[in-house]
């Protein structure tokens, strides 16, 4: 494709995007296709000769788009928002056109310096502690854009692990892996599943802390667990607090958690605010950010609630040098003479980095802080409207505290009728929602996600939900409401008690297979979902805590096997990373 062809088809693609956004309501929110649909429509092998780009675009509309879930549809109420906006798309287009791989200042000075500036803008807009702002007087902290919140959690955990191991080993020459069985991390039962994945990848133990009836981590149980583990000879090294849990958008008490963590020097406190952390751009939401001064790291996703398209996840740390020392690998071919330039390859897992800051810069400049605040407040107002509609209908109940755009509701029946309700909703193709298990009950998550959402979108959705429910409730007896008390009447017991030492309804009945499929849209079986009652749950995956004794036995056995199988290599010493790279 030459320049003139790119100009021609580029304009056509822009026109297509504009038309798609303007007429998106004419499409079903989600497909009702079966897996493997696309394989039947496309050839088994790539074309040997060039094809017309016009044909490619036609195939895109006729074959690809029928299988797309439209995350920016007014009736998409699943998961959390997929941040998107025209300024962000244009910024990403320029980033792709430039094509720079900004792993160091020398590889693209503009990418490195803009990221630093934008991350400081972002931190100040959220009202974060000055310790996270790189240009604040006396600050040793700073931030970087990662690919996802999962990366942020993993990077923070690896950094915490490195710090804890360095403290344990002191000046000895013992290999770092020897200390792994001793390390233990902590997260709420409502924490995101990425925490479990991070601990698996880092080969450390994870202890799950129960949540209270509002979905918040029980601080008293966290304190007791840390005390018990310390007494057992383990090293507590990492605690994850969540602001805006996936299951019910609950806010952990960062202040009380932070006070507990401060009593144990080996603990790194990470605060995961992937969705709700962005709400701190609103002064009235900063009541939930109280205690961030205790945090060693904090992350939030502009690609969820700040109109910036994926991928873009912001991570700030209190001490950049601790982060860099954990991830620093510096072979000769990556070195340069500009020692004062920021090399963001030391701030995360990948070496290669896209020019992510460009789209976030476009968003901040185009909307301004006030425009972003207005967008989030609109979501909050509409969620409250939906909550009011649900509470006024005695057949339904709301299970979570509605602070942002998420409402967790259910019919006042057993779980099976609610499974069927969600299946009917999703099978219609006219709305899309997801389930979760919150406070021990199956709930349907209704999240306002559309940038230009209106009250009409909410009212239309509620009327359709009621229509589906009426079909189901004809032969079902209602339960007495078991929803938790309102915050005003709540009595909490989570404070620590002492110091820590050391279309209308579908008339056709769904088949069992389709009912299972459309009521569990996060690719897990009903059995897996129900099994989460004993493990960490976020509506996604079950979390298991491995028995410490089993880990120790396996570690010892692996060490013995390794020694027996490698006796011939006993004289080979470790080689410095930089020398090996060169």
Automatic annotation (TrEMBL):
It comes from Drosophila hydei (Fruit fly). The lineage of its organism: Eukaryota, Metazoa, Ecdysozoa, Arthropoda, Hexapoda. Signal peptide: none annotated. The modification N6-(pyridoxal phosphate)lysine is found at residue 304. One of its GO terms (biological process) is carboxylic acid metabolic process. This is Aromatic-L-amino-acid decarboxylase. Belongs to the group II decarboxylase family. Its cofactor is pyridoxal 5'-phosphate. GO terms for molecular function: carboxy-lyase activity; pyridoxal phosphate binding. GO terms for cellular component: cytoplasm. Residues 484-508, 555-582 are annotated as: Disordered. Residues 555-567 have a biased composition (Polar residues). Keywords: Lyase, Pyridoxal phosphate. Pfam families: Pyridoxal_deC (PF00282).
């Amino acid at each position: 494709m030459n320049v003139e062809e790119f100009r021609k088809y580029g304009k056509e693609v822009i026109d297509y995007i504009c038309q798609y956004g303007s007429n998106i309501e004419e499409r079903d929110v989600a497909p009702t296709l079966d897996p493997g649909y696309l394989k039947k429509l496309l050839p088994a092998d790539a074309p040997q000769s060039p094809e017309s780009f016009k044909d490619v675009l036609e195939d895109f509309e006729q074959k690809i788009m029928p299988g797309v879930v439209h995350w920016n549809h007014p009736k998409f109420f699943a998961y959390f928002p997929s941040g998107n906006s025209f300024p962000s798309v244009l910024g990403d287009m320029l980033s792709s056109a430039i094509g720079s791989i900004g792993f160091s200042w020398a590889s693209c000075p503009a990418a490195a310096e803009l990221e630093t500036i934008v991350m400081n803008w972002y931190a100040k807009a959220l009202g974060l502690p000055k310790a996270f702002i790189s240009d604040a007087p006396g600050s040793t902290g700073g931030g970087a854009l990662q690919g996802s919140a999962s990366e942020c959690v993993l990077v923070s955990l690896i950094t915490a692990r490195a710090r804890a191991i360095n403290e344990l080993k002191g000046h000895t020459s013992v290999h770092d892996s020897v200390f792994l069985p001793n390390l233990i991390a902590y997260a709420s039962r409502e924490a995101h599943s990425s925490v479990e994945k991070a601990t698996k990848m880092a080969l450390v133990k994870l202890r799950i802390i129960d949540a209270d009836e509002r979905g918040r981590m029980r601080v008293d149980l966290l304190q007791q667990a840390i005390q018990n583990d310390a007494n057992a000879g383990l090293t507590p090294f990492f605690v994850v607090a969540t602001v805006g849990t996936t299951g019910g958008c609950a806010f952990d008490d960062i202040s009380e958690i932070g006070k507990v963590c401060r009593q144990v020097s080996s603990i790194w406190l990470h605060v995961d605010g992937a969705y709700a952390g962005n709400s701190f751009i609103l002064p009235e939401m900063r009541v939930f950010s109280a205690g961030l001064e205790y945090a060693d790291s904090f992350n939030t996703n502009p690609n969820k609630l700040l109109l910036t398209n994926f991928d873009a996840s912001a991570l700030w740390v209190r001490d950049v040098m601790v982060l860099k020392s954990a991830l620093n690998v510096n072979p000769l071919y990556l070195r340069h003479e500009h020692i004062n330039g920021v090399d963001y390859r030391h701030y995360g897992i990948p070496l290669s980095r896209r020019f992510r800051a460009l789209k976030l810069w476009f968003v901040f400049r185009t909307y301004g802080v006030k425009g972003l605040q207005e967008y989030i407040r609109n979501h909050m107002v509409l969620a409250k409207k939906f909550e009011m509609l649900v509470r006024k209908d005695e057949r339904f109940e709301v299970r979570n505290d509605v602070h942002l755009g998420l409402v967790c509701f259910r019919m006042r029946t057993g779980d099976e009728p609610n499974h069927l309700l969600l299946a009917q909703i999703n099978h219609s193709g006219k709305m899309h929602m997801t389930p979760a298990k919150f406070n021990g009950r199956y709930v349907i998550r209704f999240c306002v996600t559309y940038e230009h959402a209106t009250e009409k979108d909410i009212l239309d959705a509620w009327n359709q939900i009621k229509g589906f429910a009426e079909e189901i409730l004809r032969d079902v007896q209602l339960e007495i409401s078991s929803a938790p008390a309102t915050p005003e009447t709540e009595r909490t017991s989570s404070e620590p008690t002492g110091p820590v030492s050391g279309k209308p309804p579908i008339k056709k009945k769904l088949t069992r297979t389709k009912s299972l499929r459309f009521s569990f849209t996060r690719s897990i079986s009903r059995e897996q979902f129900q099994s989460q009652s004993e493990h960490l749950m976020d509506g996604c995956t079950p979390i298991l805590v491995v028995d410490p004794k089993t880990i120790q036995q396996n570690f010892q056995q692996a060490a013995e096997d390794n020694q027996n199988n490698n006796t011939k290599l006993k004289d080979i010493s470790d080689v410095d990373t930089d020398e090996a790279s060169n």
